[in-house]
Automatic annotation (TrEMBL):
It is an enzyme of class 2 (transferase). This is Probable nicotinate-nucleotide adenylyltransferase. Keywords: ATP-binding, NAD, Nucleotide-binding, Nucleotidyltransferase, Pyridine nucleotide biosynthesis, Transferase. It catalyses: nicotinate beta-D-ribonucleotide + ATP + H(+) = deamido-NAD(+) + diphosphate. It comes from Pantoea wallisii. The keyword NAD applies.
Amino acid sequence: MSKLHALFGGTFDPIHYGHLRPVEALAGQIGLKKVTLLPNNVPPHRPQPQASAAQRVAMLQCAIADRPLFDIDTRELARSTPSWTVATLEALRAERGAQQPLGFIIGQDSLLTLHKWHRWQDLLSLCHLLVCKRPGYATQLDTPALQQWLVAHQAQDPQQLHHAPAGYIWLADTPLFDISATEIRQRRHAGQPCTDLLPDAVIAYIDRAGLYRD
Ligand SMILES: Nc1ncnc2c1ncn2[C@@H]1O[C@H](COP(=O)(O)OP(=O)(O)OP(=O)(O)O)[C@@H](O)[C@H]1O
Ligand SMILES: O=C(O)c1ccc[n+]([C@@H]2O[C@H](COP(=O)([O-])O)[C@@H](O)[C@H]2O)c1
């Protein structure tokens, strides 16, 4: 039985198949039993979401109703300050103890900007980074020094993620989904359909709540 607990942070405005499907594949590949979705309140480094925190959580609930792999942790919504991942991970580490393997899931685009995150060099002392592929983004980091840092921490075997509490980067070979929440919001504003980009239950919620309309 795996002890590795994975968290997947995001703005999720809205959640879509580009979030769900790569992570489902990752879970199968490395043996994750549970993935905790961690919606942020005040996302660092980007415009604020169009949907409220409560609406984004409601969309997560719609999306995972028939996906037992996932649950939701709303702790970042309780803070009105920016949702620094390092602070959330410190709180989780304090709760779960020094030996609990923790993974933080990101897409390739997030890996490329990781060196701009708050106290980014502390992240690997708190968790592993589990990276899903995303089409349209470079596979090499910006500078030779960053690329060296990546290679130095890269795990070669998923068992390393289960046996160490933190410290590795897993570059997962996940399927590519050319989907973004930005595109979904734009399509909704333009009155275009989004079928196949996100679960029907989330589309039904967006319709009911009148989200992403001008
Ligand atoms: N299509 C995708 N493939 C792989 N990873 C993704 C994809 N979309 C989002 N992610 C990852 O999911 C996490 C949360 O992303 P986020 O909620 O910002 O979605 P987004 O589609 O990038 O949103 P937006 O278009 O509003 O910026 C990030 O780590 C991001 O890299
Ligand atoms: O801690 C930071 O500085 C930081 C900077 C950018 C993003 N993050 C986190 O990374 C996750 C994905 O972010 P986003 O903006 O792509 O939804 C989400 O949990 C954010 O809170 C964290």
